[in-house]
Design brief:
Helix content is 8%, strand content 47%. The strands form two sheets. Strands 2, 4, 5, 6, 9, 10 and 11 form a seven-stranded mixed β-sheet that branches. A four-stranded antiparallel β-sheet has the order 1-3-8-7, with no helix packed on it.
């Protein structure tokens, strides 16, 4: 699966951006995650969606501000980011793994761990937030 992340840019604190993750396949029955990595920091999982049933997950720091969704084009997943803060600045990556590789007993965090090890990754898009 080939992925391409886009939509990053420079925004003022409090502003919004919408990131897009476009895949080379229809994302039916996939877990699609957004991750970010800031300079000098470890990569962290931000959000993921299970396209089979629409279940979503958000890390605590973005709950209430970010929203992940699947587009009408079934090969695209969006990350709507509102009320952006300087701490949100990072390179954002999308990744995906087929849900057949995810045990039904796995938590969302464990599923995102599978994306780290077995998933397909896009090239990243830079998000910069000015204070």
């Amino acid at each position: 699966v080939q992925l391409q992340a886009s939509g990053g840019g420079l925004v003022q604190s409090g502003g919004s951006l919408r990131l897009s993750c476009t895949a080379s396949v229809t994302l039916d029955y996939y877990a699609v995650g957004w991750f970010r990595q800031a300079p000098g920091k470890e990569r962290e999982g931000v959000s993921c969606i299970f396209t089979s049933d629409g279940t979503t997950y958000y890390t605590d720091s973005v709950k209430g501000r970010f929203s992940i969704s699947r587009g009408n084009a079934k090969n695209t997943v969006y990350l709507q980011m509102n009320s952006l803060k300087p701490g949100d600045a990072a390179i954002y990556y999308c990744a995906t793994v087929h849900e057949s590789l995810i045990s039904s007993s796995f938590t969302h965090l464990q599923a995102m761990g599978l994306m780290n090890d077995f998933g397909s990754w896009g090239q990243g898009t830079q998000v910069t937030v000015s204070s």
